[in-house]
Design a protein that fits this description.
2 copies of one chain form a homodimer. Chain A is of the alpha/beta class. Chain A is built from 8 helices and 9 strands. Helices cover 44% and strands 21% of the residues of chain A.
Chain lengths: 200, 200
Protein backbone atom coordinates (compact mmCIF):
# COMPACT_ATOMS: atom_id res chain seq x y z
CA UNK A 1 0.00 0.00 0.00
CA UNK A 2 1.18 3.52 -0.79
CA UNK A 3 2.14 5.85 2.02
CA UNK A 4 0.44 9.15 2.71
CA UNK A 5 1.50 12.73 2.17
CA UNK A 6 0.61 14.52 5.39
CA UNK A 7 0.50 18.31 5.34
CA UNK A 8 0.56 20.03 8.72
CA UNK A 9 -0.32 23.71 8.90
CA UNK A 10 -1.63 26.17 11.45
CA UNK A 11 -0.82 29.48 13.06
CA UNK A 12 2.44 30.27 14.74
CA UNK A 13 2.00 29.38 18.41
CA UNK A 14 -0.39 26.48 17.75
CA UNK A 15 2.33 23.93 18.45
CA UNK A 16 2.48 22.43 14.98
CA UNK A 17 6.28 22.16 15.07
CA UNK A 18 6.19 20.15 18.29
CA UNK A 19 3.46 17.88 16.94
CA UNK A 20 5.35 17.46 13.66
CA UNK A 21 8.55 16.36 15.43
CA UNK A 22 6.85 13.98 17.82
CA UNK A 23 4.99 12.30 14.94
CA UNK A 24 8.33 11.68 13.27
CA UNK A 25 9.61 10.09 16.48
CA UNK A 26 6.50 8.07 17.26
CA UNK A 27 5.33 6.84 13.88
CA UNK A 28 7.48 4.21 12.24
CA UNK A 29 7.76 4.53 8.50
CA UNK A 30 7.11 8.28 8.59
CA UNK A 31 9.75 10.69 7.32
CA UNK A 32 9.97 14.43 6.88
CA UNK A 33 9.83 15.94 3.44
CA UNK A 34 13.09 17.61 2.40
CA UNK A 35 12.75 21.03 0.81
CA UNK A 36 14.77 22.41 -2.05
CA UNK A 37 16.20 25.88 -1.53
CA UNK A 38 18.45 28.42 -3.16
CA UNK A 39 19.73 29.74 0.14
CA UNK A 40 23.35 28.85 0.96
CA UNK A 41 24.05 25.91 3.30
CA UNK A 42 24.77 26.97 6.88
CA UNK A 43 27.15 25.29 9.32
CA UNK A 44 27.18 21.53 8.86
CA UNK A 45 24.09 21.35 6.63
CA UNK A 46 24.41 18.59 4.04
CA UNK A 47 22.76 18.53 0.62
CA UNK A 48 19.90 16.01 0.62
CA UNK A 49 19.69 15.95 4.43
CA UNK A 50 18.50 19.32 5.71
CA UNK A 51 17.75 20.64 2.21
CA UNK A 52 18.39 20.00 -1.43
CA UNK A 53 20.61 22.96 -2.22
CA UNK A 54 20.01 24.41 -5.67
CA UNK A 55 21.21 27.35 -7.69
CA UNK A 56 18.63 29.90 -8.75
CA UNK A 57 18.83 28.51 -12.30
CA UNK A 58 18.33 24.93 -11.15
CA UNK A 59 15.38 25.95 -8.99
CA UNK A 60 13.71 27.89 -11.78
CA UNK A 61 14.18 24.90 -14.06
CA UNK A 62 12.38 22.78 -11.43
CA UNK A 63 9.53 25.30 -11.48
CA UNK A 64 9.39 25.25 -15.27
CA UNK A 65 9.32 21.45 -15.32
CA UNK A 66 6.58 21.30 -12.69
CA UNK A 67 8.87 19.35 -10.37
CA UNK A 68 7.68 21.10 -7.21
CA UNK A 69 4.49 20.48 -5.24
CA UNK A 70 4.71 24.05 -3.95
CA UNK A 71 7.27 26.82 -3.74
CA UNK A 72 7.70 30.33 -2.46
CA UNK A 73 10.24 33.09 -2.66
CA UNK A 74 11.13 34.30 0.83
CA UNK A 75 13.32 37.42 1.00
CA UNK A 76 14.98 36.55 -2.29
CA UNK A 77 15.51 32.84 -1.64
CA UNK A 78 13.38 30.09 -3.14
CA UNK A 79 12.04 27.28 -0.98
CA UNK A 80 9.95 24.42 -2.35
CA UNK A 81 8.84 20.81 -2.00
CA UNK A 82 10.30 18.50 -4.67
CA UNK A 83 7.64 16.22 -6.05
CA UNK A 84 10.10 13.38 -6.71
CA UNK A 85 11.18 12.99 -3.08
CA UNK A 86 7.55 12.87 -1.95
CA UNK A 87 6.38 10.47 -4.66
CA UNK A 88 9.34 8.11 -4.25
CA UNK A 89 8.63 8.00 -0.51
CA UNK A 90 4.92 7.30 -0.70
CA UNK A 91 5.35 4.85 -3.56
CA UNK A 92 7.71 2.86 -1.34
CA UNK A 93 5.01 2.81 1.36
CA UNK A 94 6.39 5.57 3.58
CA UNK A 95 4.37 8.44 5.00
CA UNK A 96 5.90 11.77 4.10
CA UNK A 97 5.06 14.57 6.48
CA UNK A 98 5.61 18.26 6.02
CA UNK A 99 4.98 21.39 8.02
CA UNK A 100 4.04 24.37 5.93
CA UNK A 101 2.07 27.64 5.84
CA UNK A 102 -1.48 27.73 4.49
CA UNK A 103 -0.37 29.19 1.14
CA UNK A 104 1.97 26.25 0.56
CA UNK A 105 -0.66 23.82 1.84
CA UNK A 106 -3.13 25.16 -0.71
CA UNK A 107 -0.65 24.70 -3.57
CA UNK A 108 0.00 21.10 -2.49
CA UNK A 109 -3.70 20.28 -2.08
CA UNK A 110 -4.31 21.51 -5.62
CA UNK A 111 -1.48 19.45 -7.14
CA UNK A 112 -1.97 16.41 -4.95
CA UNK A 113 -5.54 16.23 -3.62
CA UNK A 114 -4.92 12.82 -2.00
CA UNK A 115 -2.69 14.48 0.61
CA UNK A 116 -4.02 14.61 4.17
CA UNK A 117 -4.33 18.24 5.27
CA UNK A 118 -4.29 18.73 9.03
CA UNK A 119 -4.77 22.16 10.56
CA UNK A 120 -3.35 22.56 14.08
CA UNK A 121 -5.25 25.19 16.01
CA UNK A 122 -4.97 26.57 19.53
CA UNK A 123 -8.20 26.03 21.50
CA UNK A 124 -9.07 29.70 20.99
CA UNK A 125 -7.56 32.99 19.85
CA UNK A 126 -7.54 34.07 23.49
CA UNK A 127 -5.31 31.13 24.39
CA UNK A 128 -3.12 31.85 21.37
CA UNK A 129 -2.74 35.44 22.50
CA UNK A 130 -1.73 34.28 26.00
CA UNK A 131 0.80 31.88 24.51
CA UNK A 132 2.31 34.56 22.29
CA UNK A 133 2.52 36.97 25.24
CA UNK A 134 3.99 34.19 27.38
CA UNK A 135 6.93 33.87 25.02
CA UNK A 136 7.87 37.42 25.95
CA UNK A 137 10.01 37.62 22.82
CA UNK A 138 7.43 39.32 20.62
CA UNK A 139 6.64 43.02 20.56
CA UNK A 140 3.05 44.16 20.99
CA UNK A 141 2.94 44.97 17.29
CA UNK A 142 4.18 41.53 16.36
CA UNK A 143 1.60 39.86 18.65
CA UNK A 144 -1.24 41.82 17.04
CA UNK A 145 0.11 40.92 13.61
CA UNK A 146 0.41 37.22 14.49
CA UNK A 147 -3.12 37.12 15.85
CA UNK A 148 -4.65 38.63 12.74
CA UNK A 149 -2.46 36.30 10.66
CA UNK A 150 -3.78 33.34 12.69
CA UNK A 151 -7.35 34.37 11.97
CA UNK A 152 -6.58 34.69 8.28
CA UNK A 153 -5.00 31.24 8.31
CA UNK A 154 -7.94 29.60 10.09
CA UNK A 155 -10.29 31.18 7.57
CA UNK A 156 -8.78 28.85 4.92
CA UNK A 157 -9.95 25.83 6.92
CA UNK A 158 -12.17 24.39 4.20
CA UNK A 159 -9.20 23.20 2.18
CA UNK A 160 -8.05 21.01 5.08
CA UNK A 161 -9.33 17.55 5.88
CA UNK A 162 -8.95 17.66 9.65
CA UNK A 163 -8.52 20.10 12.49
CA UNK A 164 -6.77 19.37 15.77
CA UNK A 165 -7.34 21.75 18.67
CA UNK A 166 -4.13 21.79 20.63
CA UNK A 167 -5.46 22.32 24.12
CA UNK A 168 -3.39 19.55 25.66
CA UNK A 169 -0.22 18.70 23.75
CA UNK A 170 -0.12 14.93 24.31
CA UNK A 171 -3.81 14.69 23.42
CA UNK A 172 -3.20 16.74 20.25
CA UNK A 173 -0.30 14.46 19.26
CA UNK A 174 -2.45 11.38 19.87
CA UNK A 175 -5.29 12.83 17.77
CA UNK A 176 -2.95 13.63 14.89
CA UNK A 177 -1.51 10.12 15.00
CA UNK A 178 -5.03 8.68 15.07
CA UNK A 179 -5.99 10.69 11.98
CA UNK A 180 -2.99 9.39 10.04
CA UNK A 181 -3.72 5.80 11.03
CA UNK A 182 -7.42 6.05 10.15
CA UNK A 183 -6.65 7.49 6.71
CA UNK A 184 -5.15 4.14 5.69
CA UNK A 185 -8.59 2.56 6.02
CA UNK A 186 -10.29 5.11 3.75
CA UNK A 187 -12.17 3.42 0.94
CA UNK A 188 -10.52 5.74 -1.60
CA UNK A 189 -7.07 4.47 -0.53
CA UNK A 190 -8.07 0.81 -0.85
CA UNK A 191 -9.86 0.78 -4.19
CA UNK A 192 -7.20 -1.15 -6.09
CA UNK A 193 -6.98 -3.78 -3.35
CA UNK A 194 -10.78 -4.14 -3.29
CA UNK A 195 -11.06 -4.34 -7.08
CA UNK A 196 -8.38 -7.05 -7.01
CA UNK A 197 -10.37 -9.05 -4.44
CA UNK A 198 -13.52 -8.67 -6.53
CA UNK A 199 -11.73 -9.94 -9.62
CA UNK A 200 -10.24 -12.99 -7.91
CA UNK B 1 -20.12 18.47 19.78
CA UNK B 2 -22.59 16.09 18.17
CA UNK B 3 -21.94 12.39 18.27
CA UNK B 4 -21.56 10.21 15.22
CA UNK B 5 -23.80 7.67 13.57
CA UNK B 6 -21.58 4.70 12.81
CA UNK B 7 -22.84 2.11 10.35
CA UNK B 8 -21.04 -1.24 10.38
CA UNK B 9 -21.65 -3.64 7.50
CA UNK B 10 -19.86 -6.50 5.82
CA UNK B 11 -20.34 -10.11 4.81
CA UNK B 12 -21.41 -12.83 7.18
CA UNK B 13 -18.21 -14.36 8.58
CA UNK B 14 -16.23 -11.10 8.48
CA UNK B 15 -16.51 -10.67 12.24
CA UNK B 16 -18.58 -7.49 12.21
CA UNK B 17 -20.74 -8.65 15.13
CA UNK B 18 -17.68 -9.23 17.32
CA UNK B 19 -16.21 -5.86 16.35
CA UNK B 20 -19.56 -4.16 16.95
CA UNK B 21 -19.87 -5.58 20.48
CA UNK B 22 -16.31 -4.83 21.49
CA UNK B 23 -16.67 -1.22 20.31
CA UNK B 24 -19.69 -0.88 22.58
CA UNK B 25 -17.62 -2.20 25.47
CA UNK B 26 -14.47 -0.21 24.75
CA UNK B 27 -15.76 3.16 23.65
CA UNK B 28 -17.36 5.30 26.29
CA UNK B 29 -20.30 7.34 25.13
CA UNK B 30 -21.11 4.86 22.36
CA UNK B 31 -24.44 3.08 22.35
CA UNK B 32 -26.19 0.64 20.04
CA UNK B 33 -29.08 1.80 17.92
CA UNK B 34 -32.37 0.17 18.88
CA UNK B 35 -34.49 -1.12 16.01
CA UNK B 36 -38.22 -0.97 15.70
CA UNK B 37 -39.91 -4.22 14.72
CA UNK B 38 -43.34 -5.74 14.25
CA UNK B 39 -42.23 -9.18 15.36
CA UNK B 40 -43.53 -10.27 18.76
CA UNK B 41 -41.29 -9.92 21.84
CA UNK B 42 -39.51 -13.14 22.79
CA UNK B 43 -38.65 -14.30 26.32
CA UNK B 44 -37.72 -11.39 28.52
CA UNK B 45 -37.37 -8.82 25.73
CA UNK B 46 -38.45 -5.37 26.89
CA UNK B 47 -39.89 -2.63 24.69
CA UNK B 48 -37.26 0.11 24.23
CA UNK B 49 -34.38 -2.17 25.28
CA UNK B 50 -33.91 -4.93 22.72
CA UNK B 51 -36.40 -3.42 20.28
CA UNK B 52 -39.17 -0.89 20.00
CA UNK B 53 -42.12 -3.23 19.50
CA UNK B 54 -44.71 -1.88 17.09
CA UNK B 55 -47.90 -3.07 15.48
CA UNK B 56 -47.95 -3.33 11.72
CA UNK B 57 -50.14 -0.20 11.62
CA UNK B 58 -47.76 1.76 13.85
CA UNK B 59 -44.77 0.69 11.77
CA UNK B 60 -46.42 1.64 8.51
CA UNK B 61 -47.29 5.00 10.00
CA UNK B 62 -43.60 5.47 10.84
CA UNK B 63 -42.75 4.69 7.22
CA UNK B 64 -45.37 7.14 5.96
CA UNK B 65 -44.06 9.88 8.28
CA UNK B 66 -40.45 9.23 7.22
CA UNK B 67 -39.51 8.37 10.80
CA UNK B 68 -37.13 5.57 9.84
CA UNK B 69 -33.57 5.85 8.55
CA UNK B 70 -34.02 2.47 6.89
CA UNK B 71 -36.38 -0.47 7.07
CA UNK B 72 -36.94 -3.87 5.58
CA UNK B 73 -39.57 -6.55 5.61
CA UNK B 74 -38.04 -9.89 6.59
CA UNK B 75 -40.32 -12.92 6.24
CA UNK B 76 -43.40 -10.82 6.95
CA UNK B 77 -41.99 -8.79 9.85
CA UNK B 78 -40.81 -5.22 9.59
CA UNK B 79 -37.47 -4.13 11.05
CA UNK B 80 -36.20 -0.57 10.90
CA UNK B 81 -34.03 2.12 12.47
CA UNK B 82 -36.04 4.92 14.14
CA UNK B 83 -34.60 8.30 13.21
CA UNK B 84 -35.61 9.86 16.55
CA UNK B 85 -33.55 7.49 18.70
CA UNK B 86 -30.47 8.10 16.52
CA UNK B 87 -30.88 11.87 16.34
CA UNK B 88 -31.58 12.26 20.07
CA UNK B 89 -28.44 10.25 20.79
CA UNK B 90 -26.07 12.12 18.50
CA UNK B 91 -27.57 15.49 19.47
CA UNK B 92 -26.74 14.69 23.09
CA UNK B 93 -23.14 13.93 22.03
CA UNK B 94 -23.34 10.14 21.98
CA UNK B 95 -22.06 7.93 19.19
CA UNK B 96 -24.78 5.63 17.92
CA UNK B 97 -23.53 2.47 16.30
CA UNK B 98 -25.45 -0.04 14.27
CA UNK B 99 -24.72 -3.26 12.48
CA UNK B 100 -26.65 -3.72 9.28
CA UNK B 101 -26.65 -5.29 5.82
CA UNK B 102 -25.48 -3.30 2.79
CA UNK B 103 -29.04 -2.61 1.62
CA UNK B 104 -29.87 -0.97 4.95
CA UNK B 105 -26.52 0.83 4.99
CA UNK B 106 -27.30 2.32 1.59
CA UNK B 107 -30.69 3.60 2.77
CA UNK B 108 -29.09 5.21 5.81
CA UNK B 109 -26.27 6.78 3.80
CA UNK B 110 -28.84 8.35 1.48
CA UNK B 111 -30.94 9.78 4.33
CA UNK B 112 -28.03 10.72 6.58
CA UNK B 113 -24.84 11.22 4.53
CA UNK B 114 -22.89 12.39 7.61
CA UNK B 115 -22.95 8.85 8.99
CA UNK B 116 -19.65 6.96 9.08
CA UNK B 117 -19.92 3.84 6.93
CA UNK B 118 -17.42 1.12 7.82
CA UNK B 119 -17.21 -2.07 5.80
CA UNK B 120 -15.71 -5.04 7.66
CA UNK B 121 -14.06 -7.45 5.26
CA UNK B 122 -12.19 -10.72 5.70
CA UNK B 123 -8.63 -10.48 4.34
CA UNK B 124 -9.73 -12.45 1.26
CA UNK B 125 -12.59 -14.56 -0.06
CA UNK B 126 -10.36 -17.60 0.42
CA UNK B 127 -10.08 -16.86 4.12
CA UNK B 128 -13.82 -16.21 4.29
CA UNK B 129 -14.48 -19.57 2.67
CA UNK B 130 -12.20 -21.29 5.21
CA UNK B 131 -13.99 -19.54 8.06
CA UNK B 132 -17.42 -20.55 6.77
CA UNK B 133 -16.26 -24.16 6.31
CA UNK B 134 -14.68 -24.06 9.78
CA UNK B 135 -18.05 -23.37 11.33
CA UNK B 136 -19.16 -26.77 10.05
CA UNK B 137 -22.77 -25.67 10.49
CA UNK B 138 -23.34 -24.61 6.91
CA UNK B 139 -24.18 -26.88 4.01
CA UNK B 140 -22.06 -26.71 0.84
CA UNK B 141 -24.93 -24.93 -0.87
CA UNK B 142 -25.16 -22.35 1.89
CA UNK B 143 -21.39 -21.74 1.80
CA UNK B 144 -21.47 -21.12 -1.94
CA UNK B 145 -24.44 -18.80 -1.49
CA UNK B 146 -22.74 -16.88 1.33
CA UNK B 147 -19.58 -16.44 -0.71
CA UNK B 148 -21.38 -15.03 -3.72
CA UNK B 149 -23.41 -12.85 -1.35
CA UNK B 150 -20.14 -11.59 0.19
CA UNK B 151 -18.82 -10.63 -3.24
CA UNK B 152 -22.04 -8.82 -4.05
CA UNK B 153 -21.80 -6.96 -0.74
CA UNK B 154 -18.17 -5.93 -1.25
CA UNK B 155 -19.08 -4.64 -4.72
CA UNK B 156 -21.09 -1.88 -3.01
CA UNK B 157 -17.90 -0.61 -1.31
CA UNK B 158 -18.01 2.85 -2.86
CA UNK B 159 -20.86 3.94 -0.62
CA UNK B 160 -18.74 3.28 2.47
CA UNK B 161 -16.19 5.65 3.95
CA UNK B 162 -13.77 3.07 5.34
CA UNK B 163 -12.84 -0.57 5.02
CA UNK B 164 -11.30 -2.70 7.75
CA UNK B 165 -9.69 -5.98 6.74
CA UNK B 166 -10.28 -8.34 9.62
CA UNK B 167 -7.14 -10.45 9.43
CA UNK B 168 -6.37 -10.15 13.11
CA UNK B 169 -9.38 -9.45 15.33
CA UNK B 170 -7.75 -7.18 17.92
CA UNK B 171 -6.04 -5.21 15.15
CA UNK B 172 -9.38 -4.87 13.32
CA UNK B 173 -11.07 -3.64 16.51
CA UNK B 174 -8.29 -1.12 17.10
CA UNK B 175 -8.55 0.14 13.50
CA UNK B 176 -12.31 0.58 13.78
CA UNK B 177 -11.91 2.48 17.03
CA UNK B 178 -9.21 4.66 15.44
CA UNK B 179 -11.53 5.51 12.53
CA UNK B 180 -14.30 6.61 14.89
CA UNK B 181 -11.91 8.76 16.91
CA UNK B 182 -10.38 10.41 13.84
CA UNK B 183 -13.80 11.28 12.41
CA UNK B 184 -14.31 13.75 15.26
CA UNK B 185 -11.44 15.83 13.88
CA UNK B 186 -12.91 16.04 10.38
CA UNK B 187 -13.20 19.63 9.20
CA UNK B 188 -16.81 19.01 8.15
CA UNK B 189 -17.71 18.06 11.73
CA UNK B 190 -16.09 21.17 13.20
CA UNK B 191 -17.39 23.89 10.91
CA UNK B 192 -19.70 25.52 13.42
CA UNK B 193 -16.99 25.58 16.09
CA UNK B 194 -14.51 27.09 13.62
CA UNK B 195 -16.98 29.69 12.38
CA UNK B 196 -17.65 30.62 16.00
CA UNK B 197 -13.91 31.10 16.64
CA UNK B 198 -13.61 33.23 13.50
CA UNK B 199 -16.49 35.43 14.62
CA UNK B 200 -15.16 35.95 18.14
Amino acid sequence: MSGLLIVIAGPSGAGKGTIFHSLLERMPNTVASISATTRAPRGKEVDGVEYFFKTKEQFEEMIARDELLEYANVFGNYYGTPKKFVMDGINSGKNIILEIDVVGAEQIKRKFPECVGIFIMPPSFEVLEKRLRGRATDSEESIVRRLSEAKRELSTYKMFDYIVFNDNLSEAIAQTETIIKAERNKISRNESKIEQLLNE
